[in-house]
Design brief:
The protein has 362 residues and is of the alpha/beta class. Helix content is 39%, strand content 14%. Helix 6 packs across helix 7 (195-201) and helix 10 crosses helix 11 (308-324).
Length: 362
Amino acid sequence: MAAPGKVAAFRLPPLPTIGEIIKLFRLKALKQLSQNFLLDLRLTDKIVKQAGELKNAHVCEVGPGPGGITRSILSAGVEQLLLIEKDARFIPGLQMLSEAAPGKVRIVHGDILTYKMEKAFPKHLKKSWDDEPPDIHIIGNLPFSVSTPLIIKWLENVSKRDGPFIYGRTQMTLTFQKEVGERLTANPGSSQRSRLSIMAQHLCTVENCFIIPGQAFVPKPENLALTFKPICKVDVAVVHFTPLVQPKIEQPFELVEKVVQSVFQFRRKYCFRGIETLFPENGRLKRTEQLMMTANVDPTLRPFQLSMSQFRNLCNAYRKMCDEDPSLFVFNYREELRQKKMTRSLLGSTGQPEQTEEENQL
């Protein structure tokens, strides 16, 4: 019996275990979709706890699979749970969970990369961007194959305040390959500092909550970056994102992404080398020097050594140059290399070694 003055916590009725659900519906993790099941409910509870207070909240779970994290979310006492699952094999097991929590669960068979999140939650939950985050959360154990493109997509949504962020500063608690989690949270000077670090940290507070050992998953996750045998088993990072009220770089997402991508083109070389790729060959050196002087950035720093304020200066200075010459923003260094390669091929020339090296790196 509930204590006087308190509402009894929601409890799921007795259900088959996640392992039994997998056997019942003959579910098998597909390697080509980089699927991995998390069966330990203590770990799924720990993931959900990182999201914060979920009592009476509205939650979207991405790729629930057999429903391990789903159970932990429901046990946290949420008001509504939206499940978006691409793989139809998992739908019957999720429907079983939906029936065990009447009126709380909505299942969408679809792809999160194309699903319109603008209509996912009730309009009354919307909050001003300057207010505290809305009572809306996104949680997901993401397949490695989709995690990076999905977080880049959502970061662009944060920048434009659309998609799931049309409701305000919606918080996200997501899993990534451990190395990706380290890149998302890496500080200046860290060997893991990357394009992903800047794009995430200039828009959100990013916290690497804890690491889940690979052996906790069935099957153990594999490193997608490795193409040789034996395959390396990897650990998984749980990362929490809270959009910032004010981004650290106040420029359009596409401009920031272009500058950051260019800087990290040649991460082992001086940052001057990557910044050069922002400009056409004609006048490249002069414009690169102008940009770096205006931004007050030491050209001999490596890309991973640059601070957020230095990236902000570079973006602001580049924006000013683009305003003066709009053709700059549409310039594509890769396309210029491709055209030069075609010209060399037509002339029967082998080209310069440095150009060939760049083409290989890019």
